[in-house]
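Customer escalation, tier 2.

The customer says the design service returned an amino acid string that "doesn't look like it belongs to this structure." They asked us to rerun it and document both sides in this ticket. The original structure tokens are below, unchanged.
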């Protein structure tokens, strides 16, 4: 253990991820002495691995509707005060080239390493001290209002403590339950957590029927709990993935009905009737193989439609039979059994209850000088750059006052 004298700061930030670094930069720019305490060997590991290595760093279409929270109003103030354009201004100032993929999603042209470098350069310019490989052993809040952090790098103390330790997803990247434990230590409620933006698993006959179709992808509309997403679905050897499934996974809970429309934006019955008129001699299974990936169409015929004898020509199908085929395409009856869990989840739903936190400053309503920002809070974004935008915005809100 490295022995050093107790170090005084104005703001201690626990967690050198997206939210913690943004908070540190903002507070440092105000002249505050800021120390970031990160237990991993480097900061920003999730930024590095995000967006397939190119970091989907924001979404220009960000609105409060893109977030899940027990209090859907909580995110409004911070998001309104630090918009995607504020972050884009920083990215542009550092000469980082970016492009828009789909639906306002902005990615680096070259590498997410540039975003981490930018944040560290901003930290250095603002005089922020970053302690990596530093584990916290104890947190105390004394009568004078100071927070004392006993760490493997010695003792740090400051009147403001910002918890930016993230959620539980991807434990191998440094994720820990630290923020939740600390919140409870200081009297905050923590709402139940679960994995979000995560592949869904199938089991039993559902899994057996699709396991050998692993790699098949197609556009679908996935719906659950009153929410729907149209995007691609990918069959995996354990179940279902792809953007539409990751998105809906944040709304799905065990036992919920997952609806999958395999012909998004089209009326399946109308499409089948049109094909019946145009190609009466074509077999149903051939026609389905043109509407869907061939291997999936074949499996639908074998497993879900065999009683309709799909090798018959289209002209032989009456209206009720076409209706049944259309219903199978629009409501593919698959039952998800679970999720792949925190091991592969991009985010953690639930977390520190926002009822105990000010939505303008992110400061605790119970304990002065204590702040919660980023994913540790019960605010979770959709897939597409919204989670980083929340990290930047909430980090900026706390850093402006801490
Ligand atoms: P974050 O998890 O980033 O940082 C928390 C930090 O605290 C970590 O560095 C951790 O090591 C540290 N820490 C934890 N416990 C500690 C302790 N006890 N002491 C000290 N330090 C501690 N979002 C998005 O908008 N666009 C994208 O492209 C992606 N892509 C993506 C890919 C993958 C694979 C994942 C897993 C996630 C994404 N995300 C994403 C989500 C995004 O990464 C996530 O929402 C933010 O990183 C959350 O930022 P935070 O700073 O709150 O936590």
């Amino acid at each position: 253990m490295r022995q050093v004298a107790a170090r005084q700061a104005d703001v201690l930030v626990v967690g050198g991820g997206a939210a913690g670094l943004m908070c540190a930069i903002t507070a440092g720019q105000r002249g505050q002495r800021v120390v970031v305490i990160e237990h991993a060997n480097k900061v920003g590991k999730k930024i590095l691995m995000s967006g397939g290595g190119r970091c989907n760093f924001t979404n220009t279409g960000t609105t409060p509707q893109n977030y899940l929270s027990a209090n859907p109003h909580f995110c409004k103030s911070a998001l309104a005060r630090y918009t995607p354009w504020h972050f884009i201004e920083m990215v542009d100032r550092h000469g980082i080239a970016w492009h828009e993929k789909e639906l306002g999603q902005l990615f680096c042209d070259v590498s997410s390493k540039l975003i981490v470098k930018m944040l560290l350069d901003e930290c250095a310019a603002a005089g922020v001290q970053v302690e990596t490989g530093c584990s916290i052993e104890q947190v105390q809040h004394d009568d004078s209002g100071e927070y004392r952090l006993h760490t493997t790098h010695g003792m740090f103390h400051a009147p403001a403590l910002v918890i930016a330790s993230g959620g539980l997803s991807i434990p191998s990247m440094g994720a820990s339950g630290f923020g939740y434990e600390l919140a409870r230590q200081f009297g905050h409620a923590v709402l139940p957590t679960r994995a979000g933006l995560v592949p869904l698993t199938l089991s039993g006959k559902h899994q057996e029927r699709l396991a050998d179709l692993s790699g098949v992808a197609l556009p679908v509309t996935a719906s659950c709990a009153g929410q729907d997403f149209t995007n691609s679905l990918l069959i995996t050897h354990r179940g279902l993935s792809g953007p539409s499934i990751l998105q809906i996974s944040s709304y799905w809970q065990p036992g919920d009905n997952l609806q999958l429309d395999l012909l998004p934006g089209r009326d399946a019955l109308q499409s089948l009737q049109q094909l019946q008129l145009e190609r009466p001699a074509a077999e149903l299974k051939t026609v389905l193989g043109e509407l869907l990936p061939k291997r999936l169409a074949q499996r639908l015929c074998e497993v879900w439609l065999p009683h309709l004898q799909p090798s018959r020509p289209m002209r032989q199908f009456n209206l009720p039979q076409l209706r049944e085929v259309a219903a199978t395409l629009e409501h593919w009856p698959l039952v998800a059994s679970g999720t792949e869990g925190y091991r592969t989840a991009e985010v953690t739903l639930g977390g520190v209850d926002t009822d105990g936190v000010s939505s303008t400053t992110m400061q605790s309503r119970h304990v002065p000088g204590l702040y919660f920002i980023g994913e540790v809070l019960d605010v979770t974004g959709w897939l597409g750059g919204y989670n980083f935008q929340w990290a930047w915005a909430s980090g900026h809100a706390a850093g402006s006052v801490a």
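Tier 2 assessment: The sequence is consistent with the input. The CA atoms of residues 53 and 321 lie 48 Å apart. The first strand starts at residue 7 and ends at 8. Sent an explanation to the customer and offered a walkthrough call.
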